[in-house]
């Protein structure tokens, strides 16, 4: 019988969540690099390059890959012969490990978990409670998978119960384009089939914890229906032309995982959950001999890639920008932003809307006239940093506020990630504004373009407060121009047509 000590378990959980905050799995880096080498879309190739450079910088600096350091998910297989030397429950020990990881003084992680989710949505301030799944198995060990799942990809989880005679591939291929780019492709798609509704969702999540091995599967061939589905979905999803960051390109998914389970004769539950470009998980086993030893990867596992904006990149001085200058920008164009901009995301937009709705003035210092807003919730700074990793959040959540912001505040542009919906596109076109995107999943790289940061309003909102950033050569892409034309609409269509005319790059 193995005895698992409380401190060993808690320390292992804490170390695991620190580890995955700055180390991508090696198989993910290899697959992403392969996608980079074969990508023909300049915009998508540029985005993948930033993701790879960001990953290497995070590994070197031990700082988060993404500002959304995720909700903590832990899968446990506990041997029935295990004895616990602890005065805490298993869930309480997991939460204590998560708490320590997210409050680590040298690498604090962003607290994103809110309690009372349908009410006041109060931030728990330590990212607890974790989501814990426990399975009792034979043996005298504890197998642990620790994963951090960001909101952008989790929000794209989908579920359906189709007829037993229907093909899951049809529903999945119809659904993937509706997810948009908020899940930061290229990533991995997890598919759960069978069981009951909650079992199918769990299968989809569990499948994401498996190694990336689609190319090895392609070489040896499928040996089961689940593997046949993996191969079919991998090829057909990439043929959609969605590409990195939804800009249009050859690689949308790096792998597709499928787990199935027996189900009722009248049912065929199907669930999908994507893993984003900030894929983060680690596996280890405890046997009573002490805490887990997590071996750092070698920096040689990361490819040496450089990124340059290119000769056609347009340098923009935000402090001297005029509204009429925006008319020259075109979808897909690279900009290098310098100067001052304000930040704000969901909670800040809600407060602004409430203040304007009551006829009250915005807080002192909050002036959006002729300025840009960056949808971001940064990680706290450490050491000499002016701000921690500060990548964009999904812009579509701010769509319902776009008309108000453009019509009432003097705002002329927005920066975020992923596409804008019809409501926002109409407002952008009507007010002759623009929408720019930064690369989702490249938070540490982006933070290096930020020269100063200060909170100017709503400090009680923590990472959702309004900051003023001063940036220098911050790379962004024009996603929506003043005419309301969106690269997230035109890019995938263009590349879907191209893919139909060229030899498939993933073959």
What's this model, at a glance?
By secondary structure, this protein is of the alpha/beta class.
Summarize the SSE layout with pairings.
Layout: E1 3-5, H1 6-22, H2 26-38, H3 42-61, E2 71-79, E3 83-85, H4 90-102, E4 114-115, E5 122-123, E6 131-137, E7 142-149, H5 151-154, E8 158-162, H6 168-175, E9 187-194, H7 197-207, H8 214-220, H9 225-238, E10 253-261, E11 268-275, E12 281-286, E13 314-317, E14 334-343, H10 346-357, E15 372-374, H11 399-408, E16 413-416, H12 422-431, E17 434-437, H13 443-447, E18 450-457, E19 466-480, H14 487-499
Parallel strand pairs: 1-3, 2-6, 9-10, 13-14, 14-15, 15-16, 16-17
Antiparallel strand pairs: 2-7, 4-5, 7-12, 8-11, 9-11, 14-19, 17-19, 18-19
Helix pairs in contact: 1-4, 2-3, 10-11, 11-12
Would you mind describing this structure in some detail?
The protein is of the alpha/beta class and 507 residues long. It folds into 2 domains: 3-286, no CATH class; 314-492, Alpha-Beta Barrel (fumarase), CATH 3.20.130. Helices cover 31% and strands 23% of the residues. The strands form 5 sheets. A 5-stranded mixed barrel has the order 14-15-16-17-19. Strands 6-2-7-12 form a 4-stranded mixed β-sheet. Helix 1 (6-22) packs across helix 4 (90-102), helix 2 packs antiparallel against helix 3 and helix 10 crosses helix 11 (399-408). The termini are far apart. The model has no long low-confidence stretch (mean pLDDT 95).
């Amino acid at each position: 019988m193995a005895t698992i000590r409380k401190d060993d378990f808690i320390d292992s959980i804490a170390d695991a969540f620190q580890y995955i905050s700055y180390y991508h799995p090696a198989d993910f880096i290899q697959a992403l690099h392969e996608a980079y080498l074969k990508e023909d879309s300049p915009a998508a190739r540029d985005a993948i390059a930033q993701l790879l450079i960001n990953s290497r910088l995070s590994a070197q600096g031990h700082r988060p890959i993404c500002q959304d350091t995720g909700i903590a998910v832990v899968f446990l297989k506990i041997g029935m012969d295990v004895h616990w030397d602890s005065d805490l429950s298993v869930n309480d020990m997991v939460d204590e490990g998560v708490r320590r990881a997210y409050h680590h003084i040298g690498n604090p992680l962003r607290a994103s978990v809110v309690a009372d989710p349908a009410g006041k949505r109060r931030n728990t301030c330590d990212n607890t409670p974790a989501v814990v799944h426990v399975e009792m198995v034979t043996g005298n060990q504890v197998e642990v998978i620790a994963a951090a799942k960001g909101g952008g990809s989790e929000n794209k989880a989908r579920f359906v119960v189709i007829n037993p005679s229907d093909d899951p591939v049809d529903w999945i291929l119809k659904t993937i384009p509706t997810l948009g780019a908020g899940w930061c492709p290229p990533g991995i798609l997890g598919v759960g089939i069978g069981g009951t509704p909650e079992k199918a969702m769990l299968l989809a999540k569990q499948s994401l914890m498996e190694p990336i091995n689609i190319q090895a599967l392609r070489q040896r061939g499928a040996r089961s229906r689940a593997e046949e589905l993996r191969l079919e979905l991998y090829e057909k999803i990439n043929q959609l032309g969605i590409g990195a960051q939804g800009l249009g390109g050859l690689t949308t998914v790096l792998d597709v995982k499928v787990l199935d389970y027996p189900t009722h004769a009248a049912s065929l539950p199907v669930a999908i959950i994507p893993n984003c470009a900030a894929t983060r998980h680690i596996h280890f086993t405890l046997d009573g001999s002490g805490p887990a030893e997590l071996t750092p990867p070698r920096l040689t596992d990361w490819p040496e890639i450089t990124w340059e904006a290119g000769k056609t990149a347009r340098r923009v001085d935000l402090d001297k920008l005029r509204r009429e200058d925006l008319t020259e920008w075109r979808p897909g164009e690279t900009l290098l932003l310098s100067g001052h901009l304000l930040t704000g995301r969901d909670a800040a937009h809600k407060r602004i809307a409430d203040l304007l709705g009551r006829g009250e003035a915005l807080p002192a210092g909050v002036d959006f006239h002729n300025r840009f807003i960056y949808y971001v919730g940064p990680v706290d700074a450490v050491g000499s940093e002016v701000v921690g990793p500060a990548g964009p959040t999904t812009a579509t959540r701010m769509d319902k506020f776009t008309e108000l912001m453009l019509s009432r505040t003097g705002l002329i542009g927005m920066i975020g990630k992923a596409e804008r919906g019809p409501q926002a596109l109409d407002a952008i076109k009507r007010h002759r504004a623009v929408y720019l995107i930064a690369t989702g999943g490249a938070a540490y790289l982006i933070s290096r373009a930020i020269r100063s940061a200060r909170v100017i309003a709503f400090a009680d909102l923590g990472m959702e407060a309004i900051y003023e950033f001063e940036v220098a050569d911050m790379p962004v892409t024009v996603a929506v121009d003043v005419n309301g034309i969106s690269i997230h609409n035109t890019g995938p269509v263009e590349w879907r047509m191209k893919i139909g005319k060229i030899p498939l790059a993933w073959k």
